[in-house]
Amino acid sequence: MKKRKNVFILLLSFILISIHNISLAIEPNGCLSEAEVELAQLINNYRNENGLPSVPISQSLTAVAQWHVIDLHENIPDTGSDHGFACNMHSWSGAQPTLWSAVCYTSDHQYAQGMWNKPREITSNVYFGNGFENAYSSIGQASARGAFNSWTNSPPHDAVILETGIWDGMNFPAMGVGIYEHHAVLWFGDQADPQGTAVACGSIGSNNFPLSAILYLLLR
After folding, report:
1. Does the structure show a pLDDT above 90 at 27?
2. Whole-structure pTM over 0.90, yes or no?
């Protein structure tokens, strides 16, 4: 009996690990990596230093952010052009038509609605507000500090974070972050998230709770 139980545990471990690895390859974790936690902390600390409140880390906007960095790396939607303008990093590919609509975002902001709609599209209207994005790319692995420094040293991106200029009075109630390979993105939303706040990977309640803990809970 003990031998059969050990075989069962090994088989279950293999299945869980396989499912875990497959999901990581095709979609976001649903939780915050260490780098994403660091980025969120850097943004909120910077806001606090400038007299602004911290913004809750939204499950919905983090899903949008994590999908976007994956799409930017895997499908490079920022390499095309439209009406004579290059697609930039706010662009989305057509790789997941059941989740989002493709958009070539250009410097004249003609397709800005394509960005604003992404939280509604990806959450099937659970999140009903607009989304606004800062995006960053690097030659090597993107880092929280690299993205933060890039945005805070760029007046248009810094204005979004500190809600100055055209962003004055936004009082953002939701924020999402994503880092994957060479890209990092930051999303702000104009509505609170009905899905609540995102948690760090490895936390109870995350989709990346340690497999050893899952096994323990199943077999205790």
Report:
1. no
2. no
pLDDT tens, residue by residue, 145-180: 999 999 999 999 999 999 999 999 999 999 999 999
DSSP letters, the chain, are -HHHHHHHHHHHHHHHHHHHHHHHHHS--SSB-HHHHHHHHHHHHHHHHTT-----BBHHHHHHHHHHHHHHHHH-GGG-EETTEE--TT-B-SS-TTT---B---TT-TTHHHHHTHHHHHTTTSS-S-EEEEEEE-SSS--HHHHHHHHHTSHHHHHHHHT-GGGTT----EEEEEEETTEEEEEEESS--TT-B--BTTSTTSTT--HHHHHHHHH-
Query: What confidence tier does 3 reach under pLDDT thresholds 50, 70, 90?
Result: low
